[in-house]
Design brief:
Layout: E1 4-15, E2 18-29, E3 33-37, H1 44-51, E4 59-64, E5 67-69, H2 74-79, E6 82-85, H3 97-101, H4 116-130, H5 145-157, E7 163-167, H6 175-190, E8 194-198, H7 202-208, E9 211-216, E10 219-225, H8 231-239, E11 257-266, E12 270-278, E13 282-286, H9 293-300, E14 308-313, E15 316-318, H10 323-328, E16 331-334, H11 338-342, H12 349-354, E17 362-363, E18 366-367, H13 369-382, H14 399-411, E19 417-421, H15 429-444, E20 448-452, H16 456-462, E21 465-470, E22 473-479, H17 485-492, H18 496-501
């Protein structure tokens, strides 16, 4: 048939009569890195779940090594050498590295007991073969995100994976960690393993991928060698149009200071943090992962209050020891991890949107259901949340639509200060453009916005001013005109001891 090890022909999938994939074609060659690209809701996750046996296609055929095959469950797919690493990692936090690698498949002695010597020796051999150095007896909860991903990869290869699916593997990694991951991926490819690589960071695809397949609204758009397309080509294929100006900018009008912090400190997290955000301004907070940016946001919003320093709202000193107090003062916080801290995934779109302001929908302890539904519907419509209905569970939405629900939830509280922590992590180019337009509109209307982001183009493109953190300290501050990628990176990697001495 071909030199492809995996071929999907005219794959369609429907849920409750709604077709989410329509006659999609896809093929994967041995030893290639094949990028799978598309907006949130384009059908990428559904296609991956069909490949891994989690879903069965409503129509179409799957060929493995030129033989027709069907998977009734994930075990059957795994037994053929197909493994997947998802954006939300699945390690057991209280088990060590070796135990996680062989979870459910521990080598046993004749008496049925775990052969611990063999488990650790085989784990070491596996990590050595991948060129990965991690303490085998380290608990998973103590590993960095990058190290957890390395363990997930090792687990995949413990089942002799021939096909590895990587879903947004770099979304939470630093630049150095991304470089390390790419070196590992290239080594894996040299050994003949085929990789399906899903990422919304288009620049990464040009560095790592051989070919790219694009889906749009559940339909197959096309497959191209990566060296034959440009970034603009991929965007047009994804969204059906060109996004000419990704970062709409609004000049900050000189207005009153809405939020200021002075010498904010918390032991082991950050020290002597001072800045201010004016009405109508977007202040970017840049730095590497672990610099303390989220810790500062948590302190301002009362999740983990600071031990020293002053927070002022419109010039008035305030005490914020809980999120409830922060909300009462007109603050809203969109957290970086939408699944853990932004949404209750088992609840509906309606319940998630109205959660911060339930008192507005109650009367004598009775919930005014119709009023709640009306508000949720208006917010979902305003945010262009794409769902089957307002009662759909949050966990059933694509990542981009989940983020729209989180944003809509907090914007419905009419905040004076909006803290956005990695607001576009794991969402597609089209949804990013919508988020950027919304941010510009809110700033134009006078909202003060604190933007935390690890994506430098985003920080540079959206911020009126930028402050940079490293190891809990502020190491740089730039106006929009002064800021360059080189200056921000230099401040983010500056030796803090040198900074203190200055």
């Amino acid at each position: 048939m071909s030199n492809s090890i995996l071929v999907l022909k005219e794959i369609s999938k429907s849920f409750s009569g709604v077709e989410v994939l329509h006659q999609v074609d896809f093929d994967l060659k041995g030893g290639e890195i094949h990028a799978l690209l598309g907006e949130n809701g384009a059908g990428k996750s559904t296609l991956v779940k069909i490949i891994t046996g989690f879903h069965q296609p409503s129509h179409g055929e799957i060929f493995l090594d030129d033989e027709a095959i069907s998977f009734n469950d994930t075990r059957e797919s795994r037994d053929t050498g197909i493994a997947a690493i998802y954006q939300e990692l699945s390690l057991f936090p209280d088990l060590d590295v070796a135990e996680n690698i062989f979870i459910g498949r521990q080598p046993l002695r004749k008496n049925g007991m775990v052969d611990w010597r063999k488990l650790y020796s085989e784990s070491k051999h596996l990590l050595d073969s991948l060129g990965v150095e991690i303490d085998l007896r380290q608990k998973a909860r103590n590993l960095s995100i990058a190290e957890q991903q390395m363990v997930e990869i090792a687990r995949a290869f413990s089942i002799n994976a021939r096909i590895l699916i990587m879903d947004e593997p770099t979304s939470s990694l630093t630049l150095n960690e991304v470089a390390d991951l790419f070196r590992l991926v290239r080594n894996i490819r040299k050994n003949g393993t085929a990789i399906i690589f899903i990422s919304h960071r288009l620049e990464e695809l040009f560095e790592i991928a051989d070919r790219v397949t694009v889906l749009r609204d559940g339909n197959y758009v096309g497959t191209k060698p990566i060296n034959e397309v440009s970034r603009d080509d991929l965007i047009r294929m994804m969204v059906g149009r060109s996004i000419s100006k990704q970062y709409p900018s609004v000049e900050a009008t000189k207005a009153e200071v809405r939020l200021s912090v002075e010498n904010l400190s918390r032991q082991g997290a950050f020290r002597e943090i001072s800045f201010e955000v004016r009405s109508g301004e977007i202040l970017g907070l840049a730095g590497l992962v672990g610099a303390g940016r989220t810790d500062v946001a948590n302190a301002i919003f009362g999740i983990k209050p600071a031990q020293e320093g002053t927070i002022k709202i419109e010039g008035e000193p305030v005490e914020i020891s809980s999120p409830r107090q922060a909300m009462a003062l007109g603050l809203a916080y969109v957290p970086e991890d939408r699944l853990q801290h932004g949404l209750i995934s088992e609840m509906s779109i309606t319940k998630n949107i109205t959660l911060p302001r339930l008192e507005d929908f109650s009367n004598m302890s009775w919930l005014l259901t119709q009023k709640e539904l009306n508000v949720a519907y208006d917010v979902a419509l305003q945010m262009d949340v794409r769902a089957l209905h307002i009662h759909q569970l949050a966990k059933e939405l694509s990542g981009g639509n989940q983020q729209k629900v989180v944003l809509g939830k907090w914007l419905s509280t009419n905040p004076r200060v909006l803290i956005l922590d990695e607001p576009t992590r794991g969402i597609d180019v089209g949804t990013k453009a919508a988020v950027y337009s919304l941010m510009a509109k809110l700033a134009e209307e006078g909202m003060a916005i604190l933007l935390i982001s690890s994506e430098l183009p985003e920080i540079l493109g959206m911020s009126d001013r930028i402050i940079v953190m490293r190891e809990g300290y502020i190491t740089g501050e730039f106006t929009r005109e002064e800021a360059t990628q080189e200056k921000v990176i230099m401040a983010a990697t500056e030796d803090v001891r040198t900074r203190i001495q200055k």
